[in-house]
Structure formats: C-alpha cells, structure tokens
Amino acid sequence: MSSRHTAVVVGPLVAASFSAVLILSGTAGAEDGGPASSKGGKVVDEAPAGVKLTTLLPEKISVDNGSKKTAITATVKNEGSKDSGKIRLLVVGFDGLVVKNVEGCSAIPENGLPEGSNSGFACTVGNLAAGKSKSYSVDATYDLSKAGKICLPVQTGDGKKTFWQQGPVPFGTTNPSPDAPATPLLLGTDNKPVSPGGKELAETGPARDLLPLGTAGASLLAAGAAGMWWSRRRVPGRQAG
C-alpha cells in the first residue's frame, strides 16, 4: 500500500474489473453507529437540476482492540426531486483506516488508488430515484496507533464529474482506552493515538497537518476546488466497475 505523505488524490481512479475479495467476520461496531451524518461533506460539481446528492456516515464506530476490525455503513442519498441518472460511490481509506471490503462493490487496484490513500472500492449505484438512498456495508480495520480517515465521493457513472464528496473525514477519540475490549471513535474527531506500549499518547500534531497539498494547500478540506482530483486526470476510456 502507498506510504506517500500527502492524502490528496491527484492520480486517476481506475475502475476495478474484479470483485471485492475479502469479507471480514466478527467485525466490531456493526450496529452501534447511532445517527448518520454528512459531516465533512461538500458539493463539488453542480448536479443536474432537481438532483441533490449527499452521503452519510455513522456518528460513531467501534474498533476491536485485539483484531483492529470495525464496520461502517456508507450511505448515498438523493435528496432532490428528480432521479440522479447513473452514479457511482467511492469508499476510500487513509492512514490508519484500511477498507477491506464494501459489500457489492469492486476493489480499486493499487495503481489506481488516489494518492495518499491505502485502499478503495468503487460501487455502481446506478440510477437513484428522488428521495431514495442506498447503503453499503463497509468492513475495515483501524490501527489505533495512527489517525484514520475515510472519503466518500459521489460521481457520474463514468467518473467525469464529482457531485459530492464527504471527507477525507477523520474518525477518532481524544480518550483512548487500550485496555478495553473495544475503542469507540467519533466522526469528525481527530484521533489521539496510543503508542505501541499502550499507555502513552503519541505525538500527532494538528489534524490538518495530516492532509497537505504541497503548494496548493489543504484543498480536500476546503470548499470550491475540493474533490477536483477525482475527475481532472481520469484515464480516457476507463469506466466505473
């Protein structure tokens, strides 16, 4: 997996041609997410008239301190008055959060992953009717010695436009519990990782320092140009899996 420092996606997303390969069992936190939230989301390209696409993530997940497994529900929703047309959802992991499987979706090959990410899946949503939503079960692992983030872009089926992007948004805790069976993490919270010894907190620095964009600044966390990396350098002829 990539070890590149920046979490900005500048490379092309290559549509996967193979199915998701790993389904985790015994995952922690599958049912304790509480209310869903669009925190960290933003409009990128303008959607067609009458179409309003957003995504939702659980406010809370729980990571098994032994297996590092967790579960996340990723939801895409059309809050508009008209059908969306063909769209796809991407689920991408950064830093300590590694996406292992997304039910019904295809893994993005390593050479097609966004720069700075460590894993990703492409989900062919198809046409989402007005007022409807579709949810995907995400199996992941979270290394609690690191910060961890997830990103949910919603694109046209061919990947040329990104209508909405949630993240990269962190899951984390400011009160780690290394001796407990599981650690609850909150959406939009910068993680304060526990050192390998399990007793001292690691130096993490400001959360925003984790997502630099070189000379262009941290645009993934800003409005406007955020998310343009999903479409600008798309490989011609490639389509969503």
Q: Could you please describe the fold and organization of this structure?
A:
The protein has strands at 36-37, 41-43, 53-58, 60-64, 69-78, 86-95, 97-102, 106-107, 117-127, 133-142, 148-156, 162-172, 182-187. It is mainly beta. The chain has a domain at 36-169: Immunoglobulin-like (Sandwich). The model is unreliable at 1-31 and 197-241 (pLDDT under 50). This is LPXTG cell wall anchor domain-containing protein.
Residue share in helices?
under 10%
- Return the average pLDDT rounded to an integer: 77
Q: What is the strand content?
A: 35-45%
Largest sheet: 8 strands, antiparallel
Which ranges are low-confidence, i.e. pLDDT below 50, for 5 or more consecutive residues?
Answer: 1-31, 197-241
Secondary structure tally, helices: 0
Number of strands: 13
Q: Which CATH class of the domain at 36-169 applies here?
A: Mainly Beta
CATH architecture of the domain at 36-169: Sandwich
Structural class per helix/strand content?
mainly beta
How is the CATH topology of the domain at 36-169 named?
A: Immunoglobulin-like
Query: What is the string of SSEs from the N terminus onward?
Result: EEEEEEEEEEEEE
In whole angstroms, how far apart are the ends?
21 Å
Shape: globular
- The radius of gyration is 17 Å
